[in-house]
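Purpose: get a first structural picture of the assembly so the mutagenesis plan has something to point at.
Setup: two entries, given in the order below. No constraints added.
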Amino acid sequence: MKIAIASGKGGTGKTTVAVSLALSCEGSVAYADCDVEEPNGHIFLNPSIKGSSRFSLPIPVIQEENCNFCGKCKEICRFNAITIFGRTIMTFPEMCHSCGGCFLVCDQGAILEDKRTIGFVEWGNTDQIDFFQGRLRVGEAMASPLIKQVKKKAMEKEYDWLMLDAPPGTSCPVIKTVRDTDFVILVTEPTPFGLHDLKLAARTIFKLGLPVGVIVNKWGIGDEAVKDWCAKQGLPILMTIPFSRKVAEAYATGQALVQVQPELKKNFQRLLEELTK
Amino acid sequence: MKELLILSGKGGTGKTTITSSFAWLAKNKVLADCDVDAADLHIILSPQESQRHDFISGVKAVVNPSKCTACGTCFELCRYDAIDISDTALVDDFSCEGCGVCAHFCPENAIDLVPNHCGYWFVSDTRFGTLVHAELKPGEENSGKLVSLVKQKARERAEDEGANLLLVDGPPGIGCPVISSFSGADLVIAITEPSKSGLHDLKRVIELSNHFKVPTCVIINKWDLNKSISEEIHEFCTRSKIRLLGTIPFDKRVINALVAEKTVFEEFKDCKAAQSIANIWHQIEKTLEEVKSEPEQRPR
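Result (structure tokens, whole complex):
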């Protein structure tokens, strides 16, 4: 079963939940950190990294001696990654979406494919968990293709459980993470920010038509509005995790929730059991 | 006019809470919320919308079923796996990046490219001044472009109003929207928290701001949740020659104010967290003066 752990708002506890689920389930399990901009799961799981592969996207390189400056490549590129003025042609690799259009339209053999490294996919394991993560190179904008690659790597093997830790937000990188999963858990906190961003995230997941449930973390710090809204929407609250300073302090040092509060393990197990029904 | 950008790398460290406090403290400014993906600043600022505009960016492929012969050319060429072939070609809107390659090479001319309505942007009045903000539709990918647009409009607005500060609440992460939010920034404030994740993510934000050569200072929020990691962050800042502007203690009243949808200054003006934020703001004002004298440092 593939479970995506997402949230509109950052810092609500996605990684806390994803790691705790991975540590609680029985059978073969993998954890994949799809927050490639700021991957944090490794801090809590402490995996030994066994391998790493460079992930690159194809970008155009102009062979000026073959170019007749016809402008077809510039015309097909909708991302302003190629520009021509007079008999000068320039590419802007950081704008390129690697659609391949320019290679296809050039009939002079003037465009060759080069590679642009946007990040790395890394894998390893702990005693019980196979671990995957993506790491976007600092300064690179294209998180989504790297996320796709992390998922691909994590899905090479069949696991009983695959936990996909999503980036915050509701845009493209989140969609890339949650797509083709069996269930989405939205983690929120009981504050106006938490509720507002939960609404956005829920709207996104509804649009994709995926089954979804909510975990309210840091229960007790704010108000009841999140619960009321979920009830009204018929969104099941799968679990509430009470706020405690002890947990916050343990989180700070990289300890997983179920290690600090082992009694919560059976709650996570029960939750997973419910999901399989 | 100066542009102050608030970032954090990690989400939930207190960007918006602290930005709204700065909004209360700062004089003669315009505000911009560049977290277009999950904007929250408006919750505290309760804006009165004065302008609403469509944000249209790029295109999406739409198949005309009466012309499509399901030949599969588009399926072969699409690098985003956005097309499936059944009786006709089917485009998955969530995967389509609007590159137009399918439309260009379709032998039947059966694919149209239609403008993509990705969201809205707003100009609003708030009790702290003008706010420019936006809302991206769920699942859209052009958040970097929307961030650029919000900043551009906010800058125009600030110039019109004769403001001397543009205060920008940035998005989390280090990817596309964050990169867009850097353009024109005079000073970046990176807000972190004393956790291993907070420090890990801070390092990546600092690396990015070095990459763009924008002066950057750090604030540790909730610093007393783990004093030894706070110390570690302090050491990291010293080593990297980055100024630690100050620390803010964990204070339940900050959350209580948030629940009341107010800044901490409006609810608990005298609490320790508010005092720390006020002190930090004083430092920021001084630092902004300093960056003024070296305008050549600003990347455009």
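The first strand of chain B starts at residue 2 and ends at 7.
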